[in-house]
Design a protein that fits this description.
Distance between the termini: 54 Å
Strand order of the largest sheet: 1-7-6-5-4-3-2
CATH class: Alpha Beta
Number of helices: 4
Largest sheet: 7 strands, antiparallel
Strand content: 25-35%
Helix content: 25-40%
Oligomer: single chain
CATH superfamily: START domain
Shape: globular
Structural class: alpha+beta
Number of strands: 7
CATH topology: Alpha-D-Glucose-1,6-Bisphosphate, Chain A, domain 4
Number of domains: 1
Length: 162
């Protein structure tokens, strides 16, 4: 296994309390708002599948489908999915999945969010490189999305309290 091709890692310091970051990660509806998937009425429960319609422009024809693995309050949230499974003509269900982990730690002035996705070396050769490249790019964007979402919700909360 080649660690450089098997694992994507991203880190960001968010100017929010750990409890606030946890809420937008572990609450499925909140998660969906910044991640780009309709999860109204859904919950993340360890050992259960969560599905929703993708709302990201250009991918609205796809369903997001993850198996929630671990939910450890204010510390770790993880799920398994089929990376870059974007062709509706292909049945990805028999392929191995990758593991996505969100880990939270306190950091000066906020919360350190670490995201990793591992297991790409088990993805079929014909899809591995593109799945890795597209998910790598996607996690960059999602780190920006969660930061922006937390900033916007903090401002909305401030306006409500004025």
């Amino acid at each position: 296994m080649n660690p450089a091709s098997d694992r994507i890692e991203r880190k960001i310091v968010l100017k929010a309390r750990r409890s606030q970051v946890w809420r937008v990660l572990a609450n499925a509806e909140e998660f969906g708002k910044w991640f780009g998937v309709a999860l109204a009425g859904k919950r993340f429960v360890a050992g259960e599948w969560t599905q929703g319609q993708i709302t990201y422009p250009g991918y609205e024809h796809l369903r997001w489908n993850v198996l929630v693995e671990r939910v450890e309050p204010e510390r770790l949230f993880s799920f398994r999915w089929h990376p870059y499974a974007v062709n509706p003509q292909i049945d990805y269900s028999q392929e191995p999945t990758t593991l996505v982990k969100f880990e939270l730690d306190d950091h000066d002035g906020g919360t350190l969010l670490k995201v990793s996705e591992s297991g790409f070396d088990h993805i079929p050769d014909v899809r591995r490189e593109k799945a890795f490249r597209m998910d790598s790019r996607g996690w960059e964007e999602q780190m920006n999305n969660i930061e922006q979402y937390l900033t916007e919700t903090a401002k909305a909360h401030e306006r409500q309290n004025d």
